[in-house]
Amino acid sequence: MSESLAVSTSKEIQDGSASTRSKKKDVNSSQVDLEKPLGNFTGKPLYPPMGKSVMVVESATKAKVIQRYLGDLYEVLPSYGHVRDLAARSGSVRPDDDFSMVWEVPPSAWTQLKSINLALSG
């Protein structure tokens, strides 16, 4: 005696015409509100994006080229090099503390960080 398994298409599942093995509860698909979020979600929806996505690259030339490829949904900003470096003093790498590192922001990078922060804030 062989048992056959039925494969349902996504359209049958959406219509509610697909058969299920256990019919403990008969729920009509019109009773389920798919647009209403489940739970107590109070954050912003992730998709579709409301504003521009921000991408940071190292050079201004790369930023211009990538901006042409990505279009208006993205804002591509140059960082003009590193925005943080290891501290110049000794002890910036701590081997006793799981090789944690002490970072500092060079004074020349603050303008780029402010423009990146402004773009991220909206």
From TrEMBL:
Residues 1-40 are annotated as: Disordered. GO terms for molecular function: DNA binding; DNA topoisomerase type I (single strand cut, ATP-independent) activity. Keywords: Isomerase. PROSITE patterns: TOPRIM. InterPro entries: Topo_IA (IPR000380), Topo_IA_core_domain (IPR023405), TOPRIM_dom (IPR006171). Residues 52-122 form the Toprim domain. It comes from the Eukaryota. Residues 1-20 have a biased composition (Polar residues). SUPFAM superfamilies: Prokaryotic type I DNA topoisomerase. One of its GO terms (biological process) is DNA topological change. Signal peptide: none annotated. The keyword Nuclease does not apply. This is DNA topoisomerase. The lineage of its organism: Eukaryota, Viridiplantae, Streptophyta, Embryophyta, Tracheophyta.
